[in-house]
Amino acid sequence: MSDATQIVETYFKAWNDFDAESRKAMLESIFAKKAKIIDPDWVAEDRDAIVEAIGAARGKLGDLPLDLTTIIGSHHDVVLYTWHLGPAAEPVAKGYGVLHINDGVVETAYNFFG
Predict the structure, then answer these.
(1) CA neighbor of 77 nearest in space, from 96, 100, 55
(2) Which of 5, 40, 54, 107 stands the most exposed, by the fewest C-beta atoms within 10 Å?
(3) Global pTM?
């Protein structure tokens, strides 16, 4: 397993963690202090804001899982993957994501619906 794969898997594990402290520890382990997430519905700029935004989103999603579908590919410092929200057989939403990784941590995450 590559470092990039492990980071993506930890990202999704954090999204699905209902324990705020555990989720925060995971996110802090993979995001740079000045990282940014750019989502169609929100932007979080810096690691503390990311922890807060994902916690708020997790609350809105209820018990729906947000799961990694496929890592499409990675090169240099970028990973492209697909995700789905809800049961795999009948997802509520699905889309793509891109993580820009530098020195073993995420600098920027982009989320797309589609």
Answers:
(1) 100
(2) 40
(3) 0.95
